Amino acid sequence: MMMEGVEFCFPHLLNSSCRKALRPVSVSMLIYMIISSISVLTATLNLLVIISISHFKQLHTPTNFLLLSLAVSDFFVGLYLLFYIMFIDGCWYFGEFMCILYYVIGTINTSSSIGTMVLISVDRYVAICDPLHYPIKVTAKRVQTCVSLCWSFSALAGSYLLKDNLKQQSRFNSCVGECVVHINFIEYVADLALNFLLPITVIIVLYLRIFVVVVSQVRAMRSHTAGVTYQCSRKGNPKKSEMKAARTLGIVVIAFLSCTLPFYCVTLTGQNAFLNGSSSAFVLCLFYFNSCLNPIVYALFYPWFRKSIKFIVTFQILKSGSRNANIVKVTE
């Protein structure tokens, strides 16, 4: 309904309804198409990763279990974006409880993604810096335990962070159709430290160390010397497959930092207005677009992922004994 150039979210509640964000139809359609495409592509690609690692026994490795955790989180981001599409015009049509649940799920996904990135960094650090003890230190069971703890902590942290909003759902809404949450200053600082500053610092430090060791290994191989001056590299030489995995996952981490840092920088400056404004919307879209990039990186650098996709799309995965298919070559 239009009234003096104003369109309301709920026309029958003129006195209490929120106003829609008015923009040209062509612009709205373009935004919807872009976000819908990202949403479908993100959910589809990550679902392929989930099916691949879950189905094929040869892919049941500690590193791949971490990739599986990341893919699950990214898959839910793809579904999460569907609700974001509804929210672009500034109106929330799903009720107060779903509004809080929307933010809770988003918080859990974000926290679990960052936690998994930390675990991936630790995994690569041990594989490169201490390759002789890697099979002993990093086992599938330990990784599964760490992943479970990561998701459990994310769920508890997300629920605790928004507990006041769950108790009084409409307390912070100024009109019907609005979906905002409130976090007090202490909780905000704690969340920022635990979900951004500390994990990002750990990821950067570990990968800088990995980079130093990889460079030292390359120099050692080129000069045909057995000794390397760096402490980590004296514990053994990592396999070529481990080095390749470190480079691939390094790209994943760089993409992750490139997509998430702008969002957290905006958050630190306090300029984000709960999805209001084109700049905030762009930063948020970039933040979620990272979930679509990860499986693309796998497709480019992991032959096993490309091979598993062929099995899935050609329905060979439905054949008896497909779980034992040779997906990973010995040379990979």
TrEMBL record:
Annotated SUPFAM superfamilies: Family A G protein-coupled receptor-like
Membrane-protein topology: Multi-pass membrane protein
Keywords noted in UniProt: Cell membrane, G-protein coupled receptor, Membrane, Receptor, Transducer, Transmembrane, Transmembrane helix
Gene designation per UniProt: TAAR1
Ranges that cross the membrane: 29-53, 65-88, 100-122, 143-162, 196-215, 249-269, 281-301
GO molecular function ontology, one term from the record: trace-amine receptor activity
Domain of life: Eukaryota
Subcellular localization(s) per the UniProt record: Cell membrane
Family that this chain belongs to: Belongs to the G-protein coupled receptor 1 family.
InterPro entries for the chain: GPCR_Rhodpsn, GPCR_Rhodpsn_7TM, TAAR
Protein name: G-protein coupled receptors family 1 profile domain-containing protein
Organism listed in the record: Oreochromis aureus
Pfam family, one: 7tm_1
PANTHER family registered for this protein in UniProt: HISTAMINE RECEPTOR-RELATED G-PROTEIN COUPLED RECEPTOR, TRACE AMINE ASSOCIATED RECEPTOR 19P-RELATED
Every G-protein coupled receptors family 1 profile domain range: 45-298
Gene Ontology cellular-component annotations: plasma membrane
